[in-house]
Amino acid sequence: MLCLSHLGARLRRSAVLSALAPGQPRLPWSQPVRCKRYEAYDARLDQDALAEARLWYNSFDASQLPKGSTTYARSSGPGGQHVNKTETKAITVYPVKELLAVLPKYLHPAVLSSKYYTAGNDSLTFSAQTHRSKSANLDENKRKLIDEVMGIYRETTPAETSPEKKKRHQEIEKRFHEARVQGKKINSAKKQSRRGPPE
């Protein structure tokens, strides 16, 4: 359950994000808002899902990503007759179903909110036309896919909390709980003193 102050902040953040340009990074709404300052950032996140995502990242191999399907078209802009007569612009479509099959589940929501996501064919679509050859533009699309996947991981997956930091948070939580109990006892004693001695 969200704190009221954080709920208001989330509503304001939603309004701001809706006005952002499509290229601005956005965090998935599934991430929880912390209401207690003594909690570690990832305290309420699915630890198994985080472990899977971190393991995937540490052993990432670009060859595991789907190849997608590529079509070519005539490029626009400067380039002279080569641009006007040859189809060097590469448009590569990576079906989301194939992409999610090789990505950890923790990243799935963010993939669907990617700026490259095309709802019509349920895919991530990249295009490149800066190079004069088809193969170079195709390679650029592959690099864009890798950059997008890595960017999604970095934006959504927090660094692992060290054992020392976890211990420190536990100690802070313990002190917080003890202070809260002590405060309740003091308030209870005040209420009792207002009532006067029992008859």
TrEMBL record:
GO molecular function annotations of the record: peptidyl-tRNA hydrolase activity; translation release factor activity, codon nonspecific
A GO-annotated cellular component: mitochondrial large ribosomal subunit
Prokaryotic-type class I peptide chain release factors domain residues: 71-193
Compositionally skewed regions (Basic and acidic residues) per UniProt: 170-181
GO aspect biological process, one term: mitochondrial translational termination
Region (Disordered) residue spans: 154-199
Biased composition (Basic residues): 187-199
PANTHER family linked: LARGE RIBOSOMAL SUBUNIT PROTEIN ML62, PEPTIDE CHAIN RELEASE FACTOR
Family membership: Belongs to the prokaryotic/mitochondrial release factor family.
Protein's name in the database: Prokaryotic-type class I peptide chain release factors domain-containing protein
Organism, scientific name: Trichoderma cornu-damae
